[in-house]
Amino acid sequence: MMEGLRLDGRTAVVTGGAGAIGAAICRDLASLGARLVVADVDGAGAAGIADELNSQSLGLGARAGAPSGPRAPATALPVDLTDPGSIAEFCGGAGAPDILVHGAGVSVVEPFADSDPADWDLMWRVNLRGPMLLTRLLLPGMTGRGWGRLIFISSDGARAGSGGEGAYAATKAGLFGLAKTLARETARANVTSNVVCPGPTDTPMLRRVDADRPGLVDKLTRSVPLRRLGTPEDVAGLVAYLCTDRAAYITGQIMSVSGGITMH
Fold this sequence. Notes:
Radius of gyration: 17 Å
CATH topology: Rossmann fold
Enzyme class: oxidoreductase
CATH class: Alpha Beta
EC number: 1.1.1.-
Number of domains: 1
InterPro entries: NAD(P)-bd_dom_sf, Sc_DH/Rdtase_CS, SDR, SDR_fam
Largest sheet: 7 strands, parallel
Helix content: 40-55%
GO molecular function, one term: oxidoreductase activity
Family: Belongs to the short-chain dehydrogenases/reductases (SDR) family.
Number of helices: 9
Structural class: alpha/beta
């Protein structure tokens, strides 16, 4: 195995860890030796992912040929990103994480002219304010120790626009400015900050949207140059790499995992 791709001795917090992409990220980071704190508003779902990680001793399981190694323990902690008190309580129990992956997000799909400002507020609190509050509490530990990784999961819809996702795209685009500013402010402390933007990805969330808008998945698939939807593992692989020492010179970047549907 190439040097610099292990995460032994590192602790990683992944919000939205019970979701499809979040769980895939947890699996990849655990396979590289990180200790996982699986964070989600769905406490039972987070506990299920932590139990899965703890029950497996080798590899990624689902991905053939991936690097393998002994897994460190995983724990689950519930957190409600709409509630500053819940965020503070979570940080008190999360220990001293070296890696913080902001995977949680919420989307309400509707034409902007018909959208409800109450939905805007929900998306702002979960997609942008929550990551800001969480990072503010956990970042000093990283800078104090002289090593850290911040990963923000945004969306290609925030980069290129997406019909029906005006407020969602706006809140996810806010992560761009936050991540780039943090990249500048923390570089001398050896903390990197990057954004990963999934394109059309086959998740339960997308399937629910497709149920309301039949034919959406087929349309998206035809528009992707690689002629398939992304998988949670496609996104997780980039996130895991950005957390390693091999990616130590990458910071302040916005990267798409989109099968070529967007090119920058």
